[in-house]
Structure formats: structure tokens, C-alpha cells
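Lab notebook, bench 4. The sequencing result for the construct came back, and we need a structural model before the next group meeting so we can plan mutations. Quick request posted to the team channel:

Model the 3D structure of this chain.
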Amino acid sequence: MKSMRLTSNRRRFLQSTAASSVGLGFLSQLPRVSAVEARPDTDIVQLRPEIEPLVRLMEETPRGEVLEKVAAEIRGGVSYQQILAALFLAGVRNVQPRPSVGFKFHAVLVVNSAHLASLDGPDEHRWLPIFWAIDNFKSSQARDISEGNWTMAPVDESKLPTSRQARAAFRSAMDAWDVPAADTAIAALTRTAGANEIFEEFFRYGARDFRSIGHKAIFVANSWRTLQCIGWQHAEPVLRSLAYALLNHEGEANPAKADLGPDQPWRRNIGLAGRFREDWLDGKTDDAATQELLATLRTGSNDDACDKVFELVNRGTHPQSIWDAIFLGSGELMFRQRGIVSLHALTTTNALRFAFDATANDETRRMLMLQNAAFVPMFRDALSGRGAVKDLAIDALESSPLNHETETFAGEIFDTLSQDRMLAARKAMQAISKNLSADELIEAARLLVFFKGSDSHDYKFSSAVLEDFYHVSPRWRPQFMAASVYNLHGSGQRDNRLVRRIQAAFDA
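Done. Here's the predicted structure in C-alpha cell form:
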């Protein structure tokens, strides 16, 4: 019954938005196009032979033609998994994660977000996020070419450590911020160690510094999640790119030999993590503790935030109450100043919470939670100089009544969002407080990203917050949904031109 109701509601919602003007029956009309043959090139890393031709097609086809050719491959039998793998690997091989793990590198970072949106979207729209990401890759590829045309080179096979030396060599290189040594070490480790044990290393290194406003942790989580779909056989170039990205410290002294601001929370938190009570995972949830930490995140330093986490844990507070405060504190920044910094506070929290759930190492869990607590005040301080910062407390936010507390409530909220973001956020808070269908609201939000989204952050943000809604305790979900809706797309916004371009190209 729930599935039938959501399908019916989706139909009504689409009919009330501009998205209804776009038909997607063109996918069945595509002609067959043969794959581009792989050509050996000793100057670039070679991928597995079964995926190399499809990657080459994405790399070498002009932006104005690539969607048609990829769609033809799908019509000829190429699977979703193969398309996703080729897209991810094309980005890894052709886009440099420097000078910052962001900017043009979003072509890689957004792949998992587009994949998550596809998985959760309706069948008839499932390819749209992936086609959008392919076009985005071509844009980033062009920018990379204009900046020097970086391409991942083959690994130096003569310098690979042995299987017995690989793990120690990788840790030593990462600790020394030694890029060449880390490159050969991770290649050797990928060939000889298991996926879980390798990512236990990356979960820690992805969270150790605040450079690139959280993109390092995001790349770790997204790499792990994408590889779980496309297969571990594609891991080596991905992990080489990941190690290279995590060692980025452009314009600074070697962090191994200096005491720099982005590295200080990690070094301090090692001491705090070692003094957690042994039964720290068995505490009790406590809304008052959540508000206590939230107040510290709002005004205190990163050290204050970590000290408060340490105090609450040893007082017997369950980690969920701490994570609630971190989610709320990140969401509050969106209200205080909507923009790129507050957006990354939420997407970074999503990545660190994912790592917290994925790791099997107790110390790593402690460090991830402490680091995320440290990062929220650092994001907050980064708002300065970027415009006005509002004085708003998310836990004091009041809801606004809905005109129609019926099956059309999602349409009302997203119609309002196009005119008044704060009012729409308050209406969303009311909807969740009244136990109206969160799934319906989330599904409507996702469909609007499909049709209105025009930037990598549209997918990164929406995939993160719509997933994290269920990571927040029910008590705080209305407030978190309000913060999420505040940065989503309204139904009155213009459709993404790419959707219409796809339709026109395939109809032709």
C-alpha cells in the first residue's frame, strides 16, 4: 500500500511542476554504436581491458556528442554498473585533485552522489543523474586540460614495496606527506590487502586535517561507496588518486614538520580519544546533552567542542546524542549563511558519519566523532568575510502551518521554496512534526534535483542530507529537515537545460 501511495503521489507531484514537460521515452529509441577500441599508451595509467574502451569513449568523445554515444552503448547492452565504473575511472585518470580537492575535481566527488540519487529515484528517471555527471565530467576535463592537462601516469613498478612491507610503507609515506612513496605503497597494498583493511587506513587519513573544507573525508567515503558498486577490481587507480588527494597541502610547509592550524585538532584529539570510558558506546541518549553540545558548537572554539564531547561521553552520553548535535550544528550554519561553506559542513558530516558507521576500529570511531565536532566551529569561523551571518538557533526554530495537511503538502512546500526559503523550511518542519510522510517529501526533493539541479553541489548536498535525515534522532528530525529544505530546489525554478538537451538529442 505504501508503494502504491508513493507512486500516485509522485505522479501528482510531477504534474504540478515543470518536470512534467520532459518526456524520457527517448532511451528506447537509441541506435547502436560500437565501443571505441582501447589504444595502449605508455604515458598514462592503463585500466582493466574490459573497461578501457568505455572509459576511452568518455574521454575522447566531444562534450556535445558524448551523451548520445553513451546512451547508444546502453541501448546496445552496456550495464549501469559499467557506465558508472567508466565515469568514475575517467574522472580519476583525467582530473587532478589539486590545487584543492574540490573545484574541477567535483567531477569525481559527485559520482557517488549521483549514484545514490539514481538508486533512490524512480525507475523512469534513473539515468538522469548519471547523464548529468557525464556531462559534468566533460566540463571538468576541459578545465583540467586548460590548466596543464594532468593525467595519471603508470605506477613506478620498480619502486613497489613487497607485500610484507606495503602497509608500513603506506603509513610511513602518509605520515611524512611523501607523495611518490605513498603512490607506490598504495599500489602495492591494493594488490595484496583486503578492501576493508585498506579503508580502515583511509578513514583515519581522510579525517586528520581540515584542508579543502572537508573534501578529503568526502572523497574517502565516496571512493569506498562507489567501489562497492563498480567492483574492487577497479580499485588501484582510484586509491592512487585518493592517496594523492589526501596529501594535498598546497602553499604550506610539510605538515609532518610543522604545527599548522588544519592539523592541530587531530593531534590534540589523539589524547582525548585515548581517555574515553571503555563503555562509551553504551551510554544513554540525552536531548539536554545534545543542546549542551550544540551551544558549544555555536560559540566555542574547536578545542571547546572536543572537550565538551569528551565530557559528555565520560558522563555517560550515548554517541547518538553527540551526533545529533553535530548534525544540528552543521544545519544551523545553513540558516546563518546559506552558501558553499555551510553546505560543506553538512556534506562533510555525512562523510564522517558514514566512516563512523563503516569502520571496525574503536579508536577510529572516537577520532572521527571528535574531528567532526572540531570541524563545525572551523566551518562556522570560515563564514566570516563571506557576507552577513544571521543570529539563528536551530533548536529554537518555530514551524509554520501548512495550508493543506494532505497528500499535496510536498507540493506546497516546494512551491513556497521558490518564493520564500525560510517559510518553506518552517513548513517542512511542521510537516515532519505532524508525522506527515517524510519519504514523500524526500522523494519530491530528489525529483526536483533531477530536473532543476545544475551544479555538483546540488547532488552532493541533496544526497547527503536526504540520507542523513534518518541518521538524526526523531526528536530533532523536524529541525534537520528544515535546514535541508532551506538549500534545496523549489518547483518554480527553471528546469536544468541539460535535461532538455538530452531529450532533443535523443529525439533526433
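The chain is about 60% helix and 0% strand.
Will bring this to the meeting.
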